[in-house]
Amino acid sequence: MLLRIITSFGLSLLVLFIQAKLPEFVPRFKIVSDTIDSNIPPGQCLVTGVVTFEDKTVNEAVIKAYNYNHSSGESDLTVLVNSNKLGQFRMKVDTSTFYLTAWKPGTGTVYVEGVKFKDQHHLVVEIYLPDDEMMDVVEKPVVYLYNDNDTKNVTVQVETKNEMLFSYPQMNEKNEWNVRVNADGIRTDDGRNYPYLFWEASSKGFDFYARQEGKILGQIIQTDSVINYLENKLYDLHLNNREVTDFITYWGPRIQQKNFALIQFKVDDEVNEIANLNISPQPDWTRRVYMVFTGFEEEPIIEVMNAPIIEEGLVKRAGFHAVEWGGTEIENIKL
Q: Where are the alpha helices (DSSP H) in the chain?
């Protein structure tokens, strides 16, 4: 089962650095050439290339370009094209373009990131679509870091056995961010501020739903009540207004696409089975929240039981602390 992991705003995690070797990231794209072309309009970059799957060219693959919206903290779609019968595509993008994606039904998504789309340049790229067999997406893991004391130099490392696919701002080769955190938020060495740290990875063979006595730990809800349900759950887990709003505006519309939903939450150490998040220096308080859900048109006949009540220690939403949220949607055929 292929996993895509998304980390949420402000997650603090109390963990020790483990010196195990991290998996090597194998890019699914190749920059063939990057040349100056004065015929391209100023402020734009011409991107051409070919999309393949299992060494065969792909017709009607969807290639999208995104810019990063610093005010909303989200990515905005700017250009969309399709590959032709030879798998070729052509698109003009702004030099502010953040990344490209390529996808076709039956395959996984490729992220062309960490690339500079230079002014009046012609960029030629080869894209290799991965197999989408049993794909589940671990979405929106975002890490929020807070600090109302003096500025701290902070290292955040994602430790996972999964293949790292995407990060923003971009991690280094050790799957780390080195940032400064103060009351104004997160700042990188280049002086740019970020509302959160984002990453995602993929893996196969992961069983998302935790069970006890043969029953899934979770609840089945009617999705017209999902807003109240999520608000109550997330505030009980001590997320703040911004984090709750970010979570619900991302996941609420997805959950409401079906009439019923099976929902399970993993909290704190339970999230470690997906990935460890190593933060140095250690935060005063950390909260990790990960939601798994499956949608149904009709009320499902599934045995569920409520998860054990979390034994809370001292909740300290002050000083240096972190919060992470993420989630994934599981197809009902995999239950």
A: 226-236, 241-255
